[in-house]
Amino acid sequence: MSAKQEYDVQTLLTHGGIQPDQHHGFVNTPIYRGSTVVFPSAEAFREGRQKYQYGRWGNPSTDALTSAIKALEGAEGTVLCPSGLAACSTAILALMEAGDHILIPDNVYSPVRTLCDSLQNRFNFEVTYYDPTLGADIESLVKPNTKVIYTESPGSLTMEVQDIPAIVRVARTHGAFTITDNTWGTPLFFPAIEHGIDLSVMAATKYIVGHSDAMLGTISASPRAWDKIKSFHALTGIFASPDDVTLALRGLRTLHVRLERHQRNAIAVGKWLEQRSEVKSVFYPALESHPQHNLWKRDFKGASGLLSFVTREAPQACVDKLVDSLKLFSIGYSWGGFESLVLPATLQSIRTAKPWEEPGHLIRLHVGLEDADDLIRDLEEALNEFSKNLK
Questions:
Q1: Which of 49, 56, 298, 388 is catalytic?
Q2: Among 205, 222, 252, which residue terminates a domain?
Q3: Prior bond to 154 cis, omega within 30?
Q4: Do 165 and 44 belong together in one domain?
Q5: Residues contacting 269, CB < 8 A, separation 6+
Q6: Degrees, nearest 5: CA angle 142-83-349
Q7: Residue of 231, 188, 260, 225 whose CA lies nearest to 16
Q8: Which one is catalytic: 4, 70, 147, 206?
Q9: Domain tally for the chain?
Q10: Nearest partner of 310 among 359, 354, 356, judged by Cα
Q11: Is 154 within 8 Å of 302 (Cβ atoms)?
């Protein structure tokens, strides 16, 4: 399909990347597995006169997904990576050189923080972690060698919403690039490139795939950054499995309806949690109690199913009992699938720009596609166990 603005997002999700005329009338692009691609002649080989020339350089499966994501993002181009973390690291490395400075939000996805800590020593990158609520005040941290300002909005675990337009203006003023991890909102709820972001990264493992059965990352670029990410991606030989790509294409078709249900359920759960005496605070941008609710309302078109809450101060045993008592929320990493998940988290050791001093326990929920009342009953029983063990 052509330009994003010509079609509603629901239409893009349904038809993006589909070319039945290229595949004998089949609606879905077949899975193209392969490394070697043969040429019809020596001349064709010598001149590279063939759309597909080697498996790592793309095939009809990967083209179907990249064209669909490109249209959804309104991007100049999209590349695929074998995981969300691979997409984050590829985006950073594509823009940075030895001696460059990068600004990273203090609430960034922890593996990205670990990566950046390593890059400081291995590649002579300078890294500064910043308070994600700075907005335009981030300019005070910009240095002459600042090459990238990285954002993640809402941020991991504590869900701060960043003032992306203000940060983009600062970056452009100083000639820096911007990257955002847009996994939570996806382009449906936050059109990152439309807001001026140079590289929009998603862990497609989560909402794009949507079924907890494949790992994948995407990087979509503005015209300003496309040549950099395209060339670096090719140089490093990064490739996504056509089987995982096909699962992502399947998930993409229902993304809109799934996110609507995730949002509806998460709002119901979040509002209910706010009324519980065991809960000190709920972190979910769609709630009016969220500190950056107005920013979310200004820039986002919706909210997904990921939220966090802080319990009142309690022994660890009470929190363990709460988590272990849940029947519909399974304990596990990742999120974005159809099922609900719970993850207890500790932040004291991984926040530096704005130390985490909350005495309560942080618990992250991914609110799935189950019936909201069933999920609330499950949480009610678990919180009752929390209170019972507190006495």
A1: 56
A2: 252
A3: yes
A4: yes
A5: 307, 365, 367, 372, 375, 376, 379
A6: 55
A7: 188
A8: 206
A9: 2
A10: 359
A11: no
pTM score of the predicted model: 0.93
CATH number, domain containing residue 216: 3.40.640.10
Q: Which of 109, 129, 150, 207 is catalytic?
A: 109
Residues 6 or more apart whose CB falls under 8 angstroms from that of 68 comprise: 1, 12, 13, 16, 17, 249, 252
Cα separation of 165 and 143, whole Å? 20
Residues 6 or more apart whose CB falls under 8 angstroms from that of 152 comprise 105, 107, 108, 109, 112, 132, 162, 180, 181
Q: How many CB atoms lie within 10 A of CB 311?
A: 23
Task: Tell me which residue range forms the domain holding 316.
Answer: 255-390
Catalytic site includes residue 181? yes
Per-position pLDDT tens, the chain of length 391: 444 457 777 777 666 666 777 776 766 677 788 888 888 889 888 888 888 888 788 898 999 999 999 999 999 999 999 999 999 999 999 999 999 999 999 999 999 999 999 999 899 999 999 999 999 999 999 999 999 999 999 999 999 999 999 999 999 999 999 999 999 999 999 999 999 999 999 999 999 999 999 999 999 999 999 999 999 999 999 999 999 999 999 999 999 999 999 999 999 999 999 999 999 999 999 999 999 999 999 999 999 999 999 999 999 999 999 999 999 999 999 999 999 999 999 888 889 998 888 899 999 999 999 999 999 999 999 999 998 877 6
Contact present, 150 and 89 (Cβ < 8 Å): no
**DSSP 3-state percent helix, strand, coil across the chain (nearest 5):** 40, 15, 45
Q: Contact at 8 Å (CB) between 255 and 280? A: no
d(CA 124, CA 312): 42
